[in-house]
Amino acid sequence: AALRDPMTMERANLLNMAKLSIKGLIESALSFGRTLDSDYPPLQQFFVVMEHCLKHGLKVKKSFLGFNKSLWGPLELVEKLCPEAAEISASVRDLPGLKTPLRRARAWLRLALMQKRLADYLRLLITRKDLLSDFYETSALMLEEEGAVIVGLLVGLNVIDANLCVKGEDLDSQVGVIDFSLYLRNDVDDYRGNRNSQIASILDQKNYVEELNRQLNSTVHGLQGRVGSLEKSNLSPLGQLAIAKNNIIKLQEENQHLRSENSLILLKSQQQLEVTQGDVSVERDTYKQSRQGLDEMYNEARRQLKEECQLRQDVENELVAQVSMKQEMELAMKLLEKDIHEKQDTLIGLRHQLDEVKAINVEMYQKMQASDDEMKKKNNMISRLEEKTNQITATMKQLEQRLQEAERHRGSAEEGTRRFKLDFANKADSLQRRIEHREKQLQQLETDLKIERQWRQTLQKDLDREKDTVAQLSTEALQISALKKEFHRLQDENLQLKSVCGDQEQALEELGSKLSESKMKIEDIKEANKALQGGQVWLKDKDASRCKLCEKEFSISRRKHHCRNCGEIFCNGCSDNELPLPASPKPVRVCDTCHALLLQRCSSNAT
């Protein structure tokens, strides 16, 4: 029944075609190059196969122009399922020339492949079968297991980089037919492949045979060499004797050649020794001069360090004194501020008292005005009474007694008024004196305040001056630290120079030891040659105490000279005969007996 179902067969065929297309695309991309463009045929066939897979089982929608199968509908759902796909959908909608749904769907597939997210988007799409049921039939490829298999195959396309131009490409005119010729096998190709494999196996056999022949030839050559060596070893004793004579003659010639080379080596070694001695003396003088200069520099740096240390100690002591002075000034400023605050409080109290005195004065002035008004009223009353008395003098004679009493009352009133005026004048004078005293105190306080302000300004100036001094001392301390760093750097350089001098002295010692060893070797060779020539033995230094010619004892000024031929010992005074050699820039001493070269020995028996 499954084989007779056309939808099942279509799904199987599309799955197989998807497998072949994806496999061929990956293999060709790996052989051709991982970056592909839109003109690559396997890539075009892949898009055609994917378009057929997405169109399988797609529902037909009715429109005004007829029936239409649109891929853009289900692909547009990916934007809702994955927010990251919104950028692709927006790009497809905004591209010019993509008006039909088919163009948009093809452009969407190409952009998703370039992002390497095509498998992820389709996986999210096939998981929502409830949404796909609106666009596909129940037996469509996207709703069955084949869709999940194709999505899994699409994951392998992430190894490919696609560089596709969607903007200017004509997506409507592309052929939607699958080219099966790309996936069919060719008999000629199979035959060529078999033939190539046979040729490769034949070439491998040929290489094996050649290698085997090469190994056999090497074995034959080795056997031939062994046969030749055996033939040479099986020669007759006469041949061996002739060979021995020839070897002796060769050895004699070689011995003569070695003697001549020995003499040349001796002359060259003496020249090199003189040159090296000159170089060593020059280097020693240079080293002594550099060491003397370094010692002077070290002494100068040490003296500067002592001076800087003493200067730093003085600066530190001065800084401590300045800090103590600053603390004392701060304490004095605090006490001065406290005294100023107390005087300000006193001044405020005096001002309050002055205000009270002013209020009392105002009150007394008001009372005085009231008394003046009352006196004026009384005077007016008296004037009226006098007028009345003048008018009614005739009628008021009977009231003379009352008038006399009134006059007495008036005198007492005037006396009280006079006393009141005297008391008020005395009180006003006392208050005026107190006000003047307070004003004098206020002026004195103001002068004290001015003096304290001036003192405070002078203290502030001294404090600013001390701050400048402290800043200058800090800069000097920084300079001292920089000088310290420079001194440490000079010490490091001195240590490096000392290490270099030590290395040079060690190198000179090693050079001297090597020269002495080479001279000893040359002496041993000479002694061996003498032994081979005549068996003559040099006389030991401890046995020879006098010169053989002049019979004088050897000393520091009269040195020993050996004849390398006869072994006799002469002093430097007797061996005056000198002969110039072609290879030596200086004449050398010769023996008076055998005219051979003399060798001078030092106390350590070194040549």
Automatic annotation (TrEMBL):
Residues 298-528 form a coiled coil. Residues 37-169 form the RUN domain. Keywords: Coiled coil, Metal-binding, Zinc, Zinc-finger. It comes from the Eukaryota. GO terms for cellular component: cytoplasm. The keyword Transmembrane helix does not apply. Residues 541-599 form the FYVE-type domain. Signal peptide: none annotated. InterPro entries: RUFY1-3, Run_dom, Run_dom_sf, Znf_FYVE, Znf_FYVE-rel, Znf_FYVE_PHD, Znf_RING/FYVE/PHD. GO terms for molecular function: zinc ion binding. This is RUN and FYVE domain containing 2. It comes from Tetraodon nigroviridis.
